[in-house]
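Re: export button greyed out
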Amino acid sequence: MSFSFGTARLFRLEVRRSALPWLLPVVAILFWLIVYRRSDLFPPVWSIRARAMQTATVSVFLPIVVGAAAWMGGREARHGLTDLLASTVRSRWYRQVALWAATTAWSAVAYAVCVGALYVAIGRQASWGGPLWWPVAVGAACLPVFTALGLAAGGLLPGRFTAPLVSVAAFFALETSAQLIHGDHSPWQISPLVAGPWNGGADQDLATFYPYLSDLPRVQIAFLAGIAVVLVAALGLPATAGSRRQRLAAAALTIAGLATATTAAALAGTGRLDPHGMIAIPAVHDAAADRPVPFTPVCSAAAVPVCLHPAYAYELATVDAALRPVLDQLAGVPGAPVRVSQGAVRYSSDDGGGIGARLDGRQPGGDSPEFRMVLPNQLPGPPLNAENLAAAVRAMTARDIVMAVVCGGREVTDAQEAVIGALTGDPHAPPGSPVAQAAQRFATLPAADRHAWLVRNAAGLRTGGITLEQLP
Amino acid sequence: MNVEAADLTRRLGRTQAVAGVTLTVDRGVYGLLGPNGAGKTSLLRMLATVLAPSSGRLRLLDGDPGDHRQCKAIRRRLGYLPQNPGYYPRFTVVDFVEYFALLKEIPAARVPRAVAAAVERVGLGDKATARLRTLSGGMLRRVGIAQAIVNDPDLLLLDEPTAGLDPEQRVAFRALLRDLGQTATVIVSTHLVEDVGAACTQVGLMDQGRIVFSGTPDELTRRGEGTDAAGDAPLERGYSAVLTEARA
Amino acid sequence: MSVEAAARSRLLSLFLAGRRVPAALAAVAVAAITLHLALYRPWNTYGALQLPLIVEAACAAAIAGTLASPFGEPERVAGSRLPFLRSTMVVGLTAAAACALAVATVGVPLSGGVAALVRNLVGFVGLGLLCAAAVGGGLAWTGPVTYLILGVYALYTQWHGPALTTPWVWPGRPGHDPGAALCAGVVFAIGLAVYTWRGARE
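Workaround output, generated via the alternate export path:
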């Protein structure tokens, strides 16, 4: 009882005299500048923003927390208290563990406040789904490692250069670890910066149609826990750290921590790119996580509605406006879709470590009443604003829809190319060429005449039976 | 007068560390007594030009420490040993004292002799080439005194200089103080009234930021005569009597 | 060498030893060698810019580690040579670090060029000097380290816009950008002036 009471009192003392609170405003400013403000640039989709949060937050917290912990770890030597404290009943390891716990508690408070504020902001903007906690958990699991690393460095090598150099070196190691990731089988994916396939970037949607796979986060947390145990236990290994029994316990903990961390890194090396974009690790994979997440799409009110996943409701007006001119012209044309729906993305890795992304499943085809599409913001690449999104949808999706109606998946004939160019307003043929002239001629027809011709001739156009000269 | 202070105050946060000290000190050894927290160290730091007064007037060695140019001139003639001086553990005794000799702009040709003399005067001649990390606390204190006197200062400020010295060294140190007091103004802050009795020509007693007594050690002793003030020695009884009176 | 010159030289060497300058130079040398070895490895465009920035920050952090005085108040009141010693130490260390890093990049590809490398280093050191004056020599490293995170973010925004283009975040600007060089130089000059005059806060 007295032990636990004394420990609690010591912890409270360490919390009160910690230097970390003085540096937390710096962390908060960096978090606001680098994580919070930037989050607004991403689509308000939980999976995208939460993953970006994990990567950026780890980078922001690491140098400051490690440096501050190293600074505090060296304080006994700095203040000439080594001998005085060595004469007390409690071992050096005990004191260092109390300091570690207090430093970790402060960093956890800062982390909770920062991430809490960010998640509240995301929650206000996101139109579907709820907070993703695995990225939060991985970030939180980093904190005991950062503080233990700093304390170990400061405690074992007290000096005026320890805090600055260990802080920069830790940042260097973290950033370099990301450079070493090549493909989905890399054990370096264990780096807490990684929240999905690293080469795909942090700004693609991975876990909206399917659950957020916890395989990699779980392995990462095990790895971080192992490293934290190793570092804290290493403080108890020197002869001056405590009694023989304590040092034996520290040695056992060090071995256990090393084994855990090594196993976790090895498991990360067995990862593979899941078809839905996450890293799956067979040894810890739960097959239930492969089932799609049910949702009710949001649709525009039109004869041919555009339907999106509710997470993308904020893009509905833009996408509908971009597709509406084409959909209105195709309405009632045989083979034309009666509905355009957003589909999930299917991912695959190539031999070079790159990631391919395409529509999950097959396009239903000309006889289906539905056309399925993938939005640009679902794919790897920088997030698009409304204007760029509309341009990309007009250039890609609108053309795909017209092609699906007039080509039927075969090689595109000149007549079909002219019709596609006329309907999308984006002829691919060289200006002045016969195809471009035919497209221009067809585009200048009155809308009713053009629509009537399409209704009459869509089938023939699709089979390639209509030539360029036969176009009105 | 080497030290002239008039209504000197210094506020540290919400604490009034020095609350209107008026003091004039010339050549000789001036002992500054007082309980913990009386404001001795703050006063000494102001006299050492480390801490600027919040208000009041201060002149040192006929110069104004608030004026940059005059402050530089004062510092060349100043010796200062704070309560907790810093040491670079890898320096030898000579390195340390020489470093301060050079910083105090002693003419280069005189430096080796001045350093050797200062080291000898504090009784560390046989430890001149020892690294500071190998010295005891009392020896480190003497190294600190050596750096303070290396420039033969006209104003020497010593904060608890005898802390950590063994009895033999304390006796020797008192002799050194008396010697220095022949040519310079020496202000010694201390808790040890026997040091004051043995070495000081004047004594001031501080309490709650004010000087509540100023006079000779004999005068302080007389203040305790015929009272039931606490203390084992006459000077201690004088000290206690003055404090009791001031607080009443 | 005259007696006066020898004394000045002795004072400088004692001052530098007291600030652990040899250890700082060793750290700079290790950083330079690390940079040289790392640049042999193929880096992607982002990593190739990020790596030198981290090494520059490491050098600046090592320099920041020398700013605290181990002697405290006796040194502060011991004469008028301290400002000269402080500025000589900082300028000398910065120049030595710049030279070491520049030499380390000879024969290996350096993204951004030597101009950006020197500019970033000078700016980092300036922030360390300002921090030393504001929060003390012991925590002077927080300036360069904090700015390193901002600098790495600025590089990131070059590929993932909108780019951070203010010259005050100079690591994100090309080496030939005069505005960025001016900002880094101004920070260094102010930091040097403040540190020379007041030293590190105690």
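The longest strand of chain B covers residues 15-25. The button fix ships in the next patch.
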